Amino acid sequence: MRASIAAEAAGTPSVSIMCDGFQGQASATGRGLGYDGLPLAVTVGHVDSQSADLMTDNFRTKTVDQVIAGLTGEVAQAAGATAEPTAIETVASGSVDEINGLFVQRGWSDGSPIIPPTRDRVESFVLAGGHDPWKTLGIAKSSGRDITVWSIAVNAVMAGCRPELLPVLIAIAEVLADPHYGAEHSGNTTGADALVILDGPASADLGFNSGPGALREGAAANTTVGRWLRLYLRNVFGFTTDEHDKATFGNSARVVLAEDMGALAEIGWEPVSAQFGVDPTREAVSVARMNSGAIVGSVFGSTPEEILPYLGDGLARIAGWDLTHVYGLGIGQFRPLLVVSPMIARVFGDAGWSKADVQAALFDHARIPAWRFEKLIGEWSNLTAGRRSLIELADAGLVPAAFAESDDADRLVPIVTEPDRFVVAVAGDPTRANAYVMSNDGPHGDWTAKAIDLSFSLDLACEAPQAEPAD
């Protein structure tokens, strides 16, 4: 779609060709980028499940005609987007049950009961912190809709968030608006979903749980903010099956993971947000989209050297097709997450290890056989052109030398390009030696952090003119 839009902007007619099933997403992408109704052509079936001869025959007999029709204007362009209600328009009235039923019917709900976002509720939610409800933070590329404080508050009321959480939601919305994060990829077929990591001295005062059950529903702040994110992606960014969401399976909404700030201070580690450029003393959110996850249970050992092999094995186990973000879909963009309980973190802290020391050690321990790495990015995937060996990639400067230390197919190679590609967080039950690992989706929701401004907003404040000094 982006190539078509570049061509259209230059005055050259174009047709976008896509796999069967992606027409709705393609139309929404064009609309979100300001080009509604771009001509489309569809290939029959999935390219991975056809022989070359069948795919060629299908393209010649069915797709080529669509391309010609699109380029010559012989087929009408897609109809424009359906008119949407205005921000303050009353779209429904009735009982709570009737409102919930209507929201489910229209696709505005995640299926669980919502609190009806009445105008009074939304206005109270916004104005409690002094925010301008019509302030725009950016545009959702996937839908073309404005990212406004008002729309943030509408979905927050629906999710059951408290008004004091609005600054946290605004910071997350700023991540979604940041081109580096790439929110427009949030509906890709593998179905990764965003994880928000919260840092800062005020996190406990805001009601966030960083202790037992840190990744489980239960604490209102963690749960409702996580739900808000899914609702916001659905209602503002258009990630529904009717628009942009092409997840084959998908994941449930993830609660916010709040780091244990006391444990971090005790061992002298900076929070995750500092790794991505935020002042470590500030409240902040760090967001990335995660694929698979796994528990690393009952980590046994009283020294870093004893527990590192187990942690490294956990990270290696969740590295699969995602390694195409090491080379293939991207280069050096794979950044898996390791969450350790405070008990495990203290083992490192008591030994004088910094977080950088842990990352360097994980680089040595989180490894897989070279033959498996090559199959994951080549033979078992169609995402890496040429299917070159790791030695060939290293010779070309596309992966570090650590991937080509010998020609032994069984040699162990890293799962990331540099030690600082590992993200290490501290949370969970302080009396248990468990860890959790997650495999991230590279640039399809890349690690991005934003500071949270908890001060009362002056958006609506008026500055009185200063009196002229007397002569």
Question: Can you walk me through this structure?
Answer:
It is built from 15 helices and 13 strands. The protein has 471 residues and is an alpha/beta fold. Among the domains are: 2-72, no CATH class; 187-218 and 246-366 and 415-451, no CATH class. The strands form 4 sheets. Strands 5, 6, 7, 8, 11, 12 and 13 form a 7-stranded mixed β-sheet that branches. It has a two-stranded parallel sheet with strand order 1-2. Helix 5 (119-127) crosses helix 6 and helix 6 (149-159) crosses helix 7. The chain is globular and about 65 Å long.
* pLDDT < 50 runs, ≥5 residues: 76-81
User: What's the alpha carbon Rg, rounded to whole Å?
Assistant: 25 Å
Q: Helix-strand pattern, N to C?
A: HEHEHHHEEHHEHEHHEHEHHEHHEEEE
% residues in beta strands: 5-15%
Fraction of helical residues: 25-40%
Arithmetic mean of pLDDT: 90
Number of helices: 15
The separation of the N and C termini measures: 65 Å
> What structural category characterises the helix and strand content?
alpha/beta
Main sheet specs: 7 strands, mixed
What is the count of β-strands?
13
Global geometry: globular
